[in-house]
Amino acid sequence: MPTSYIFSSESVGEGHPDKVADTISDAILDACLAQDKTSRVACETFVKSNHVVVGGEITTKAKFDYNEIIRAAIRGIGYVNDDDVFHADRVFITNLLTKQSPDISQGVDAKAAEGKKTAEQGAGDQGLMFGYACNETPELMPAPIMFAHRLGRELTAIRKAGKLAKWLRPDAKSQVSVKYVDGKPTEIVNVVISTQHSADVKHALIEDFCIKQVIKKVLPANMLTKNTEYLINPTGRFVTGGPEGDSGLTGRKIIVDSYGGTGRHGGGAFSGKDPSKVDRSAAYMGRYVAKNVVAAGLADKCEVQFAYAIGYPDPVSVHVDTFGTNKVAEELIIKAVQAVFSFKPAAIVKQLNLLRPIYSKTTNYGHFGKIDDLNSITWEKTDKAAALKKAAK
Description:
By secondary structure, this protein is an alpha+beta fold. It has eleven helices and eleven strands. The radius of gyration is 22 Å and the shape is flat.
């Protein structure tokens, strides 16, 4: 008897208030790393109405105008319209950034310290991180989240091109519900798009545009059926949006950033953190490992979990789960993973080449599944698949 269920995932646009905050935090991180790759950055941002507050801990030799970086990030999103309360050139900025705690620093630094068990670089915090991959899409990502991201990216591309729909504004959300039969995605049952717009456009035009120019353009035609339901701006009006309509905070869209709820999440946010923070770097490593396991044909699905103790270089645990889709014994997969990869924080940074200003490329439409710039998004490479396959014999 076939088993079926419906699974939904959402994405948000660059102008969503939480993503505005993420974008600012990652822009500051990149500005630091562009001048000083040893920068320690934990930058969080709060936005509301016409205010931006940045806070956290930064230790860096980089010299730049923080206000200029913040305004450029907002301008890049598109908050430059005359009727925007949250406007790149008019926001008030409060800077509450201080230096990193020396207690944290001595745990992360690759040198001996009293009470520290090793002189190696340690994890920047305790915690657990997950990586996930599956063979549902070419990106080896779950279908619902990838479809939701496609909608958001297309809306943004159209808005920034400035021709087809000049009424589009930066804030937007998308959601896709996919029907699974025997664990395989078979059809899209529901698509939701809520997009901010200028006050002078009619709902009927927005609805027609989103269905014809966005949904049917980027979602697979064979999965859209006569029964697929389209809900476009279901409140009927979305003029007040962005930080004017709601507050935004760095790290509040962790499920959008990862696997849309399909794969588990350890709870740590990514944006605004340099790669000494395993919340970010180990999550990237988990994706790299899981994707290579699936790419090697060792399993159809793979989830990897690591856990760390602050200041300690080795993970306290490594776990691999293939959900019964493994093609070889899971014990062999785990053995191969541990033989091919190193999970020490310094090794992760080196393997994935993370001490570069690449993080603004990760902020929007998911930190995983981006395969168009593997030089920057190195954790999406499948260059270890052959080695894993050999080691799993």
